[in-house]
Amino acid sequence: MDDLAQVRRVDGEALTALKGELQGQFGNRYSDNTSVREQHGHTLTWTGNQPPDAVVFAQSTEEVSQIVRLCARYKAPVIPFGTGTSLEGHVNAPFGGVCIDLSMMKRVVAVHPEDLDCVVEPGITRKELNDYLRDTGLFFPIDPGADASIGGMVSTRASGTNAVRYGTMKDNVIALTVVMANGDIVRTARRARKSSAGYDLTRLIIGAEGTLGVVTEITLKLHGIPEAISAGVCPFPDIDACCNAAIATIQSGIPVARMELMDKIGVQAVNMHSKLGLPETPMLLMEFHGSDASVKEQAERFGEIAEDLGGGPFTWATQAEERTKLWQARHDAYWACFTLRPGTKAIATDICVPISRLADCVNETHKDIADSRLVSPIIGHVGDGNFHCNLLVDINDGDEMQRAEGFLERLVQRGLAMEGTCTGEHGVGQAKMKYMGEEHSAATLGVMRTIKQALDPDNIMNPGKLVP
Amino acid sequence: MDDLAQVRRVDGEALTALKGELQGQFGNRYSDNTSVREQHGHTLTWTGNQPPDAVVFAQSTEEVSQIVRLCARYKAPVIPFGTGTSLEGHVNAPFGGVCIDLSMMKRVVAVHPEDLDCVVEPGITRKELNDYLRDTGLFFPIDPGADASIGGMVSTRASGTNAVRYGTMKDNVIALTVVMANGDIVRTARRARKSSAGYDLTRLIIGAEGTLGVVTEITLKLHGIPEAISAGVCPFPDIDACCNAAIATIQSGIPVARMELMDKIGVQAVNMHSKLGLPETPMLLMEFHGSDASVKEQAERFGEIAEDLGGGPFTWATQAEERTKLWQARHDAYWACFTLRPGTKAIATDICVPISRLADCVNETHKDIADSRLVSPIIGHVGDGNFHCNLLVDINDGDEMQRAEGFLERLVQRGLAMEGTCTGEHGVGQAKMKYMGEEHSAATLGVMRTIKQALDPDNIMNPGKLVP
User: Fold this and answer.
1) How many helices (H) and strands (E) does chain A have?
2) What is the CATH topology of the domain spanning A336-439?
3) Fewest CB atoms within 10 A around its CB: which of A89, A259, B187, B360?
4) Based on C-alpha coordinates, what's the Rg of chain B?
């Protein structure tokens, strides 16, 4: 299989000309100001800043198409940008080029309550969308933690705490409008809830991280806001018991909405940060959606399963205020981590394994954290076998950073050895490209490369990401 | 966008040589006997028989790869075959070539009860799989009616009666092994329940109808057999009331497992065929899965919704025997149709529209059936907006066949005009290729063609299907 086309950094007169054309067309929605460029060349992780040559704030699909056509003429890289909350260097511009900032495209184009769907522009964030939907009785469930843009969530195939019930982005997108590498505007599917009419271009673009096209409109599935919610926390003697309870819960058909694992050090962190007084042992944080009777029954049945497996007591509530208090631990988890090592930075990473291997994987990872003299709570979307390490590191300590890198490498190897994946929901970006050849066979990667080459022959769409 | 490569029918000495090589390698698992070839060149519909030049009964992924490599050398068409239950001419061989019959590949490679998944070969049928799983407490839910092979169900992106609860094939496949056009064996993903590591090749192959590769192994999601099931029938005054009840049911968050619409003539047919005495008016057939308490509650809540909308009484039961009796109408529907016009053939077709348009679409279709002097019950997976017409036609009556063809054409146009798709679950095959250019824009079809060309440059994989 051939390599992808060599990416050429546009510079000199060509760059001046390209920038001039963009500025002429987009006026004050164009910028090559250093601080704007740097703001668009960062991620939340420790990856270095790699700014684009210019940033354009697009307002419509047609404008995105114009920008991409122009870039195609110059063979200049195109990097789509939503909120910049991605974690693996997805929006860095290692070869410069033009960043298309989609944050001005945040219209809700249509809501169809009877069809339980809506059509939105990519720049709207999930919280903005849910605020907009509030009066309809509907909501968009996918919750990756950060208030990411819907376009970004499409592009990384995001999921989060309630994927166990509502699925991931791949399960909640009906259709997309995408600007391809040649500027063509492609609508991937119609608004019917299912179709067998041709290749699933929708799913091909979901998770493609902008390397095949720029998403400019999204038709999303919506769900009815549940009539009732019950939620609670349940301590367990160890990680194995947590995982066994999770498996038994799913096997028994309880339609759990959220089921989050928090390890002992995670609980210690939230106790310190939020003065919670939780028992410092691994726990599951649970949430159930349904009718009044159903969420009560689900919570009770989970409580019995937990007790059978040595866990409990399961403290749960249905009133909003009490529920919020019980779930405070989970909501505060990210910021609470820093109380474990004030002044450090967090390296957030994720892997995902078959749930039967989750306990082994978490236990081995705990041992590795200790052996590597690192500090990292583990928090997991246990219903999916997906978990996060949040490494708290002193990025100025070379020795520690080396130990952290060794740990991250082994974490992925451990996941892959257990039939897992190097990323369950964060995506590949720059940082996990080196694992693509281990996760996939040469033939599988070959197919990905063939598709990339065919649809983006000059390799201008977010180059240096995803496909090695 | 270029056209696909011209398909060359292999004949003369080349064909003799190809057949000789296959016979040499596969012995009595090779056949070019006319009746075997014709058996593999038919579908369940009225499309004519187009037999392949030879049929090989493969026993492993490696064998499939050998056959495809050989065919690639001769540029001979490759047509994968499961059970032959597809409805749109998917297994016809308009350019001859080699049919790979996968019916001997029906092993269950692994069942992972804790992960709720299994690994199977493509030739196993859904009923065979569920028989195999019976003692595990798990089941595979997708039910397209026919006892199709899992490989065929992957390839047509099948769904059926309980997609409203469990999704379609795209939602229930974790990973695939696929033999590509060059003979490469590609594993699309690992066994983790979700992943963001690269392009979604799994979903690209699902629904590709064998035009990109031959599926040789499937990792499927399984579900716990529900603790309890309630089911029943509910008559409504008209189609609008049925559809409004369906919409209200879904909006209210009742996790309905099956919700089938049967029109008045459909009810008349099952009354005649099975002596049921049902009220001859449109009805919904419902099924609920969950705990004992939950299925009771779901049925009661549906009953209230139905009553509010002028329907009912909703007759339901939880005991297996009574449930079966209530659902007998739906089970007998296909064969019961023929009592409406004994001696005729059925043309089964499907479209899918946003559920808000379903009542309009069905009502207009009823009028068209009457105006066209045709006979066709309408049965629908109403939770998805997907419905079927089962045209009962005298295929020797040229005038009637012409009216039927006009009707089928208008049915698709009507669906497309309502933001729907020309096929919700049957697939494109040969028969619906002519609609692909109406359903999708030239740019969208261009992307599909680019992918097909890139992955199958000689156009040997099931040519003459899906991509026009």
Assistant:
1) 17, 18
2) Alpha-Beta Plaits (3.30.70)
3) B360
4) 23
State percent of chain B over pLDDT 70.
Answer: 99
pLDDT band at B257 (very low <50, low <70, confident <90, very high): very high
Spatial strand order of the sheet with A98-101 comes to A30-31, A54-57, A98-101, A78-81
> Which stretch, A182-186, B85-89, B145-149, has highest mean pLDDT?
A182-186
CATH class, range B228-332: alpha beta
* Binary contact (B197, A255; C-beta < 8 A): no
Contact A200, B206 (CB under 8 A): yes
Structure-token pair, residue A437: 């050849």
Residues 294-333 of chain A whose Cβ lies under 8 A from any Cβ of chain B = 294, 297, 301
Distance (Å, whole) CA B50 – CA A437: 42
Q: Is the dihedral of CA B293, B295, B300, B305 positive or negative?
A: positive
pLDDT along chain A (468 residues), means of 10: 83 97 98 96 78 98 98 98 93 97 98 97 98 96 94 97 95 98 98 98 98 98 95 97 96 94 96 91 96 95 97 94 86 89 93 97 98 96 95 94 97 98 96 96 98 98 96
Maximum Cα–Cα distance across chain A: 72
Residue the block writes with tokens 């009502």? B363
Q: Domain A228-334: which topology? A: Alpha-Beta Plaits (3.30.70)
* Per-residue pLDDT at A45: 65
Q: Which residues of B touch A385 (CB under 8 A)?
A: 115, 192-193
Chain region(s) in chain A for CATH 3.30.70.3450: 228-334
Please state, in angstroms and rounded to a whole number, the distance separating the CA atoms of residues B244 and B310. 10
Computed over every residue of chain B, the mean pLDDT equals: 95
CA gap A304, B151 in Å, rounded:
40
Fold of B12-103+449-455: 3.30.43
Our CA dihedral for B285, B291, B297, B303, rounded to 10 degrees, sits at 10
Are the C-beta atoms of residues A64 and A98 closer than 8 Å to each other?
A: no
What pLDDT score does B337 carry? 92
Per-residue pLDDT of B284-338, as tens digits, reads: 999 999 999 999 999 999 999 999 999 999 999 999 998 988 888 888 888 899 9
Chain-centre distance for alpha carbon B112: 26
| CB proximity A199 to B under 8 Å | yes
> Residue A56 forms beta bridges with which residues?
A30, A100
In this prediction the pTM is: 0.97
Residue A130, both tokens: 């849910």
- Check if the beta carbon of residue B349 is closer than 8 Å to that of residue B388: yes
- H helix runs in B309-428, sequence order: 320-331, 333-336, 358-371, 398-417
Contact between B160 and B144 (Cβ < 8 Å)? yes
Dist CA A281 CA B53 (whole Å): 67
Token digits of residue B110: 């692994």
Contact at CB, A186 and B441, closer than 8 angstroms: yes
| Phi/psi of residue A458, nearest 5 degrees | -95, 0
Ranges of CATH 3.30.43.10 domains, chain B: 12-103+449-455
Cα B136 → chain centroid? 26
- CB A216 within 8 Å of CB A61: yes
> Which part of chain B is CATH 3.30.70.2740?
336-436
**CB–CB contact B192 A354 (8 Å):** yes
In words, the CATH class of domain B336-436 is alpha beta
SS3 B354: coil
User: How many whole angstroms separate alpha carbon A256 and alpha carbon A247?
Assistant: 11
Assess A121–B contact: CB distance below 8 Å, yes or no.
no
What would the pLDDT profile of B35-44 be if each residue is shown by its tens digit?
Answer: 999 999 977 6
Q: Which CATH architecture has domain B108-224?
A: 2-Layer Sandwich (3.30)
Best mutation target among A193, A421, A438, A462 (most B Cβ atoms within 10 Å) is A193
